[in-house]
Amino acid sequence: MANRLSAAAAEDYRGRYDRAKQADAEKDALIREMVEELEALRPVERQMSYDLETEKNERRRLQQRVEELDRNLASAANRRSFVVALIDADADAYTFRRRLLDRDDQGGKEAADEIAFRVRSEMQILGFDVDNTDILVRAYANIKGLGRALRRSGKMRENADLASFARGFTQRQGLFDFVDVGSGKEEADEKIRESLRFYASNVQCKHLFLGICHDTGYAPFLNRFAADPSTRKRITLLRSGRVAPSLAALGFRVSTALESIFVAANIPSTPIAEPTSTTSVPGPPFSNLAIKSERLGPVIRDESGRRIDKPLHIDSSAPYVQVLRNTNLCMWYYLRGECSGCERVHTVKPLNPREYDCLWFVARERPCFKVRKGKDCDDAKCIYGHEQS
Length: 389
Prior knowledge:
By secondary structure, the chain is α/β, with parallel strands linked by helices. It has helices at residues 2-78, 98-101, 104-126, 143-153, 162-172, 187-200, 219-226, 229-232, 245-248, 319-325, 331-336, 353-363, 369-372; strands spanning 81-88, 95-96, 133-141, 176-180, 205-211, 235-238, 253-255, 262-263, 286-287, 300-301, 307-308, 338-339. The chain has a six-stranded parallel sheet, sandwiched between helices. A two-stranded antiparallel sheet has the order 2-8. Helix 3 (104-126) crosses helix 5 (162-172) and helix 10 (319-325) crosses helix 12 (353-363).
């Protein structure tokens, strides 16, 4: 019996051993299979690790680029902003008036001053900080060809020099240029198109004034800017005469600020004492009842009875004051509302109170004639300075 049990036990043990051995074999096979699969995945893991590191580096590079762009954008936003006026001076509608053209370089300087003054007035209407916003003006024309045409049509005296006018225009204001585009039918048009494309994409350019209202050929090009409301509100058409219907339909703001500077092709020019030679010729008397000359009075005196000037809170270094210093405005006309007749500018619209005080400040930089002679001035409307240093 014991022997039979031993045989049965041995058989059981043998079976159990065989099963364990089979299990070990399956385990070894599983381990080998897993190792083989891991070995096969190792190149994939290395590639994924490389790709991950590459993505990390690219993300770091992009992050640095974004930070750089943010810094550049912030820097650009902090740079001085500007507005630009682009004028097709080759066009009949934007021919400068004879009172300016006949005076060669001096006429060019006066034209630049008048444009600067009027554009600043437009900027105030639009809500710009005129003291911290520059004005760029680009007038484009074939100077040689235009000069011949103007003399031939009687819009400029026979011996006047348009090149001299353009030189005076350019030299008068640091950011003004009268550009000679040379001969070619579309040269001025192409310059304006390219300039408009450039300035419209410049974040520092806050507004564009366009002297191109005569030409329907600009309509297809301008349509792309009209389609974007944020760009459309940054553009003003400078009217001279009529606005071409295709341009008017685009919905841009229209201004007549510079209309009196140009002789539009389809309207008669207003006679303004145009000289027939380079000799300065006084104009007729002028008066303007809209001028609030009462701002000049009353006469103020100190305890000793000496006349002193009314305080004006004006920064003498402000760019607008500098513009007025270089502008040939008739101070008597714009401050007192009267002028007995002179060659200075009388065609700019009346000044607002701040502009009035700025011009009065500039006028007071010149001492009163009576004070210079040691006399007392009791003219309540005297625009000049009375406090001698």
